[in-house]
């Protein structure tokens, strides 16, 4: 949003050459991203500072002598001024050093690289579900504004906003896995299928397709379908609400009346003309909902024992593994900022007016 | 909406075309808002749910048939309706209905504390930034953006991890992660108000910055803040319940709904009611906030209700 404002400001001032204008715009958004990331690191740094766990004790253990304690204290840079410590921290993060995880005894970055594809797979499928159902639902409720289809869809959306995701996940597991046996249980695969196919992308659906192993593929589908549908329901609620308000705006425009007067079929007017123009702002909405699913899947992953980033952060939290928690937080923040940037960027590419 | 009825003093007074005093004007406005709320069945339903929540919290000792902490191991995990347990009993034989009733106090406390902190802080930051402009605006909004760029639940998790698990820290973490949205709204409102004639008039009369912000800008920001707050409350309840579910919010034996679901998770396949009932309570309350917020948006914002 903010970068859209700044571009308009730049345009109004009519900069000398188009090249300068573009350079200025890129510079401005680059500055804003770097400032945001810097702030993000400062917040995680502060969190690490206020935590009641003594970082020295975590390294040397309870029974270390005073000399060893002092040495470790110096080695960790804790004798340095606050601001110097912060720059050490930034330097570490920039070079990809998030420290070691106490829980897995491996570098945090390696751990995250291992678990991230699982989250990505889940969030992607959920977004696809949300888009496939959310956009038509939004269009229908805009066309039938105020009448019963609109009310029904609005109610379904409000239901989605109001349900605790971990609760509906549990109930889904109980009904569809426990009672009916239609879907696979927690985890990404049945236990005897694990570690059979080579991991190429880390996403089991893709890996099993690459290996052409249909048994594993369908098993993976049966495991992912429930968590993905539940997450997809949330993004459906958001996407359909936004589609509805965008569509209402377009349907009130004169070109729609013109198209109708010219005798175009209602289907064409709605699904081609109006929806075509709605797609531009919708891209932003979809990217933002994708970003929120990447982080919002924390509770879903816990319920479904899904070995993704959310599960990793939660487990680290419960065992006071601060390096892993903060590393995970920074990565999620990075992805979030990156996707926000991407949505701004896509908006500019797709919408000819903002070029 | 403003039909005249000839029935008696109060109604006529509330329907007067010309208010006679500022408090009369406020009463008329409140009455018209009330009429719109009643006319919108879904919003009214939400309103009723919240009234029920408040009553439930206030009269918990009279509504709950049992002590929420009283254990009865002989009758643990009894199904709903059996042995005097309306919604069944949990793994320690505690009455789930009584625990839900008492849990409404915790939910109400969380909602009230967050509502008293995050929007107020956001309003302060947003109006100050919007009114002062210049580098103050730039700096404050940059900080706001940093918090907005952070995913809420993960940030709350990190805060709770640092501060330690517990209901107070969960509330603090939620408040810290939810103020930026209010700051953005308040700033946007302030920018539109700042240059209007009446502000210039007040300033010419010699009013100071603080006076203008507090007496003239805050009241005008209030309606958008309230709408946003009502819609946010559902999310806040869900986040608090999520933290409770992860064991980072309210600690046992407190009858917090999220923690109750977490305890019932082990029994979900055989004793479904232990986890299902508190979840229903969370769902109903956050649905209430969503319905009311949705309706309030239409009532308080005439632009949107027309479109």
UniProtKB/TrEMBL annotation, chain A:
It is found in: Cell membrane. The chain crosses the membrane at residues 26-48, 122-144, 156-177, 216-239, 278-304, 324-347. SUPFAM superfamilies: MetI-like. It holds the Pfam family BPD_transp_1. Residues 116-343 form the ABC transmembrane type-1 domain. Its main location: membrane. It is a multi-pass membrane protein. Keywords: Cell membrane, Membrane, Transmembrane, Transmembrane helix, Transport. The keyword Transport applies. Belongs to the binding-protein-dependent transport system permease family. This is ABC transporter permease.
TrEMBL record, chain B:
The chain crosses the membrane at residues 42-64, 106-133, 153-177, 233-252, 272-293. InterPro entries: ABC_transport_permease, BP-dependent_transpt_permease, MetI-like, MetI-like_sf, OppC_N. Residues 104-293 form the ABC transmembrane type-1 domain. This is Nickel transporter permease. Pfam families: BPD_transp_1, OppC_N. It is found in: Cell membrane. It is a multi-pass membrane protein. Its main location: membrane. Belongs to the binding-protein-dependent transport system permease family. OppBC subfamily. It comes from Roseibium algae. Keywords: Cell membrane, Membrane, Peptide transport, Protein transport, Transmembrane, Transmembrane helix, Transport.
């Amino acid at each position: 949003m903010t970068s859209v404002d700044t571009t308009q400001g730049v345009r109004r001032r009519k900069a000398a050459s188009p090249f300068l204008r573009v350079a200025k715009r890129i510079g401005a958004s680059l500055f804003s991203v770097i400032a945001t990331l810097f702030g993000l690191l400062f917040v995680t740094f502060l969190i690490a500072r206020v935590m009641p766990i003594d970082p020295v004790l975590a390294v040397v253990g309870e029974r270390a002598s005073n000399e060893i304690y002092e040495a470790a204290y110096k080695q960790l840079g804790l004798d340095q001024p606050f601001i110097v410590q912060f720059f050490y921290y930034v330097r570490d993060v920039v070079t990809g050093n998030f420290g070691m995880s106490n829980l897995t005894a491996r570098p945090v970055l390696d751990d995250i690289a291992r678990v991230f594809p699982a989250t990505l797979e889940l969030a992607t499928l959920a977004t696809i579900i949300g888009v496939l159902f959310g956009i038509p639902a939004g269009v229908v409720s805009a066309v039938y504004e105020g009448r019963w289809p609109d009310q029904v869809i609005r109610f379904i959306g409000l239901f989605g906003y109001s349900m605790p995701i971990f609760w509906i996940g549990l109930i889904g597991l109980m009904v569809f896995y426990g009672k009916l046996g239609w879907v696979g249980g927690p985890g990404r695969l049945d236990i005897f299928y694990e570690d059979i196919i080579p991991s190429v992308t880390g996403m089991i659906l893709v890996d099993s397709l690459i290996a052409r192993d249909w048994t594993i593929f369908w098993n993976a589908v049966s495991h992912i379908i429930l968590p993905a549908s539940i997450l997809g329901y949330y993004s459906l609620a958001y996407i359909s609400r936004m589609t509805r308000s965008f569509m209402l705006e377009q349907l009130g425009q004169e070109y729609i009346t013109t198209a109708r007067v010219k005798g175009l079929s209602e289907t064409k007017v709605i699904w081609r003309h109006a929806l075509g123009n709605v797609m531009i702002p919708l891209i932003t909405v979809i990217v933002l909902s994708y970003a929120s699913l990447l982080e919002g899947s924390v509770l879903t992953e816990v319920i479904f024992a899904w070995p993704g980033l959310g599960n990793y952060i939660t487990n680290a939290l419960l065992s006071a593994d601060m390096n892993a928690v903060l590393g995970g937080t920074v990565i999620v923040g990075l992805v979030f900022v990156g996707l926000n940037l991407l949505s701004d960027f896509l908006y500019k590419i797709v919408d000819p007016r903002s070029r | 909406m403003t039909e005249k009825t000839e029935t008696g003093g109060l109604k006529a007074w509330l329907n007067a075309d010309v208010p006679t005093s500022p408090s009369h004007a406020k009463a008329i406005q409140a009455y018209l808002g009330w009429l719109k709320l009643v006319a919108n069945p879904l919003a009214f339903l939400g309103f009723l749910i919240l009234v029920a929540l408040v009553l439930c919290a206030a009269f918990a000792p009279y509504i709950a048939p049992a002590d929420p902490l009283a254990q009865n191991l002989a009758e643990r995990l009894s199904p709903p309706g059996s042995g005097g347990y309306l919604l069944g009993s949990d793994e320690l034989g505690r009455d789930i209905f009584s625990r839900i009733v008492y849990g409404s106090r915790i939910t109400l406390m969380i909602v009230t504390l967050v509502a008293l902190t995050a929007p107020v802080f956001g309003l302060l930051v947003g109006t100050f930034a919007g009114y002062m402009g210049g580098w103050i605006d730039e700096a404050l909004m940059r900080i706001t953006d940093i918090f907005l760029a952070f995913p809420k639940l993960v940030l709350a998790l990190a805060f709770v991890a640092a501060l330690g698990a517990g209901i107070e820290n969960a509330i603090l973490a939620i408040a810290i992660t939810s103020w930026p949205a209010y700051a953005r709204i308040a700033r946007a409102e302030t920018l539109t108000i700042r240059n209007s004639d009446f502000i210039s008039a007040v300033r010419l009369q010699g009013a100071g910055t603080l006076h203008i912000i507090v007496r003239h800008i805050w009241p005008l920001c209030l309606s958008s803040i309230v709408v946003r707050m009502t819609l946010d409350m559902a999310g806040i309840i869900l986040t608090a319940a999520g933290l409770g579910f992860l064991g980072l919010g309210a600690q046992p034996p407190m009858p917090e709904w999220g923690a109750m679901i977490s305890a019932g998770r082990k029994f979900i396949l055989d004793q479904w009611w232990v986890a299902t009932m508190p979840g229903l309570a969370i769902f109903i309350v956050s649905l209430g906030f969503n319905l009311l917020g949705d309706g309030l948006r239409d009532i308080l914002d005439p632009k949107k209700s027309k479109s």
